[in-house]
Design goal:
A hairpin with a 2-residue loop joins strand 1 and strand 2. Helix 6 crosses helix 9, helix 7 crosses helix 8 and helix 8 packs antiparallel against helix 13. The chain has 325 residues and is mainly α. One of its GO terms (cellular component) is membrane. Keywords: Membrane, Transmembrane, Transmembrane helix.
């Protein structure tokens, strides 16, 4: 009974926790933005607008159904794994204590600096470290064959809904969980060492205010069929929904582009930025995948492909050019 309650509490938390992207408020704001954009900017009729946002062929496709199943299975898996992951508080404490060995005593920086400036510095630093680490890990998931075998599960989605963000193999989920813990612990431990009790997160409903703004302004449209571009200037700074859809495109030109979560700066600096100039009727998925939504291919096959990627490639034997005469 306790396991069942924990399971359903975890699922409901996805929709009621403002720290989660699928929080109902973010979904509502995203769909509202989509309707306003499609109806008043794109001049689409109501039927076309509804089809792009709530079409049955999108929300009840084989791809979407597998998204929902993955979310439930992964919730069970993570219930068993998360308790084994060391907490950010433990790592933050470790960092805090070891900083004493690097610095004599415990220097307090800018003691006359108002607490709200410390809070602002902490909030922005945490956001920047979090976003930069997401970019790096995401890039590695694409460029390291062992990791791509697991990340490919996310890209086998052939239709995109906000729930596709959780279409991930448990191995990827664990990688990102470790990433989050390490980033938060490093930021917490360092700031508390230098600024003490003045450290505070500027939040809205418990969510970092920067991420709250990101989510409330349509983050969920990234995994959708609503083509929303910010224009080339802004897309050098922030990843638009259209840019992330390009990231999911099956077109070879779009591969290994737009790894960023919020900021496009990392892609710009990493030469992986692709601007959403024109909508070209994108198709999503991974070429050559057979039965991409079958549970075996979503959970078991990635392990096989990952370890095969580690096997040394056989060198082709040199041709014998010696004469037989």
């Amino acid at each position: 009974m306790d396991i069942a309650l924990t399971f359903f509490d975890g699922l409901s938390d996805l929709l009621i926790n403002p720290q989660k992207r699928l929080f109902w408020g973010y979904l509502l704001s995203g769909f509202s933005l989509a309707f306003l954009y499609l109806c008043f900017i794109r001049k689409e009729n109501i039927k076309a607008t509804f089809s792009q946002t709530f079409g049955k062929d999108i929300w009840w496709s084989a791809s979407a159904k597998s998204d929902y199943l993955i979310i439930m299975i992964n919730k069970l898996v993570m219930m068993a794994v998360i308790p084994l992951i060391i907490t950010k508080l433990a790592i933050a404490t470790y960092i805090f204590e070891n900083l004493h060995h690097l610095f004599e005593g415990r220097p307090q920086l800018w003691l006359d600096l108002p607490a709200h400036w410390v809070a602002l510095a902490f909030t922005l630093s945490l956001f920047l470290m979090d976003d930069a680490s997401k970019y790096l890990v995401h890039r590695w998931l694409h460029t390291v064959p062992f990791l791509w075998a697991f990340h490919k599960v996310h890209h086998t989605a052939e239709t995109l809904t906000p729930f596709t963000v959780l279409r991930v193999h448990p191995v990827e989920g664990i990688i990102f969980a470790f990433r989050a813990v390490l980033v938060q612990a490093l930021c917490l431990g360092t700031f508390f060492f230098f600024f003490g009790a003045r450290v505070e997160l500027i939040d809205v409903l418990g969510a970092n205010i920067v991420l709250f703004i990101f989510h409330i302004t349509g983050s969920n449209l990234r995994h959708s069929h609503v083509w929303l571009s910010y224009g080339s200037t802004i897309e050098h700074l922030f990843i638009s929904p259209a840019q992330h859809q390009i990231h999911h495109s099956i077109d070879q030109r779009h591969h290994d582009r737009n790894y960023g979560a919020v900021l496009a700066l990392w892609d710009w600096m990493g030469n992986s930025l692709y601007l959403a100039k024109d909508q070209a009727g994108l198709s999503f998925g991974v070429q050559g995948e057979v039965q991409p939504h079958h549970l075996k291919n979503l959970y078991i096959t990635p392990f096989k492909e990952a370890f095969l990627s580690l096997a040394p490639k056989r060198k082709k034997p040199l041709l014998d050019h010696s004469s037989n005469n």
